[in-house]
């Protein structure tokens, strides 16, 4: 954790903790009620859009492209859970 603070990436750390918390809460909601995918779907969609834009701008697979692809797969999984 110390290198994150010294390299000036506090915003990245805060964003990661925020998305992780929202995704964790969404997973908790899905385990309680498998039809309640709104929070997980929202967080996966937002992460897909943000990381997709970063991937398009940087053309680097790691980490933006990989996270965008995994988030898109999560969206597909959640949609298929509703069907």
Write the layout of secondary structure elements.
Elements: H1 2-6, H2 10-32, H3 38-58, H4 61-82
Helix pairs in contact: 2-3, 3-4
Describe this structure in words.
The mean pLDDT is 89. The termini are far apart. The chain is mainly α and 83 residues long. 86% of the residues lie in helices and 0% in strands. The radius of gyration is 14 Å and the shape is flat. The protein has four helices and no strands. Helix 2 packs antiparallel against helix 3 and helix 3 runs antiparallel to helix 4.
Q: What is Rg?
A: 14 Å
Global shape? flat
Mean pLDDT: 89
Instruction: Please tally the β strands and state the result.
Output: 0
Regions with pLDDT < 50 over 5+ consecutive residues?
Answer: none
Biggest beta sheet attributes? none
- Fraction of residues in helix: over 70%
- What's the total helix number? 4
Output the structural class.
mainly alpha
> What's the helix-strand series?
HHHH
β-sheet strand percentage: under 5%
The CA-CA distance between the termini, in Å, is 41 Å
Q: Could you list some keywords that capture this structure?
A:
83 residues; flat; mainly alpha; 0% strand
Short description, anyone?
With 83 residues, the protein is mainly alpha-helical. It has helices at residues 2-6, 10-32, 38-58, 61-82.
């Amino acid at each position: 954790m110390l290198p994150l603070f010294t390299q000036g990436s506090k915003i990245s750390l805060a964003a990661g903790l925020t998305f992780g918390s929202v995704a964790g809460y969404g997973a908790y909601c899905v385990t309680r009620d498998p039809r309640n995918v709104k929070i997980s779907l929202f967080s996966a969609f937002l992460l897909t859009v943000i990381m997709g834009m970063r991937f398009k701008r940087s053309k680097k697979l790691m980490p933006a492209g990989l996270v965008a692809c995994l988030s898109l797969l999560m969206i597909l999984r959640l949609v298929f859970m509703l069907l």
